[in-house]
Design brief:
This protein is of the alpha+beta class. It folds into three domains: 40 residues; 84 residues, Roll (Chitinase A, domain 3), CATH 3.10.50; 48 residues, Thrombin, subunit H, CATH 2.40.10. The protein is 28% helix and 31% strand. The strands form two sheets. Strands 1, 2, 3, 4 and 9 form a five-stranded antiparallel beta sheet that branches. Strands 5-8-7-6 form a four-stranded antiparallel beta sheet, with no helix packed on it. A hairpin with a 5-residue loop joins strand 1 and strand 2. The protein is elongated. It starts with a helix and ends with a helix.
């Protein structure tokens, strides 16, 4: 009888040890899964590298630009690499989130500035570009391209508009956050 009790005691102890080991393994697996979920669930914040899919439309709903079905737009949040109103609206979003964002002109490309209209002599513009709406590209002092559009043609001069083509317009973005990577994670990968 003592041997039977002792055997039952040993068997029960083995079962408890197996159950505890299985529980420990399950807890470790759950902790690893939770850590991965938190990494996958990283919110957009300053220094985050963000991968974004977007569709940009104007006030009439005309599509101005999109990268849907193409490579995502990649930018660093907080580095003023995208327009301020959109960047502000994306803060706190996570991978997989979608958002409809209307950005007023003052948080996009700004208002139309009257000082951005420049009047120059006709002979400085090639004849084939002397039509209203023609797009001209010149090189700035720092080598960057400067864009202008022919706004008006006068008898001896041409009025150029050097405002951004989207200045003065409210812009609508439909965005999907494809991925978010923390600044710290980028450094660790190097």
């Amino acid at each position: 009888m003592k041997k039977t009790r002792y055997a039952l005691f040993l068997a029960a102890g083995s079962i408890m040890i197996l159950a505890m080991t299985a529980g420990l393994a399950t807890a470790e697996t759950e902790a690893a899964a939770s850590a991965k979920a938190k990494a996958d669930d990283l919110a957009i914040g300053n220094g985050s590298t963000v991968q974004l899919e977007y569709k940009l439309t104007d006030e009439k709903g005309t599509i101005l630009d999109t990268n849907e079905g193409k490579e995502p737009l990649v930018y660093t949040h907080g580095q003023e690499q995208i327009i301020p109103g959109l960047e502000k609206a994306l803060g706190g979003l996570r991978a997989g989130d979608t958002k409809h964002v209307v950005v007023p002109s003052d948080e996009a490309y700004g208002p139309i500035r009257s000082e951005a209209f420049v009047e120059i002599p006709k002979q400085r513009i090639p004849e084939k570009l002397q039509t209203v709406g023609a797009h001209l590209v010149a090189q700035g002092k720092n080598g960057q391209p400067l864009h202008a559009f022919v706004k008006e043609i006068k008898e001896k001069t041409i009025v150029l508009d050097t405002n951004h083509p989207l200045a003065g317009k409210a812009l609508t973005f439909d965005v999907k956050v494809v991925g978010v990577e923390a600044a710290q994670e980028k450094q660790e990968k190097k």
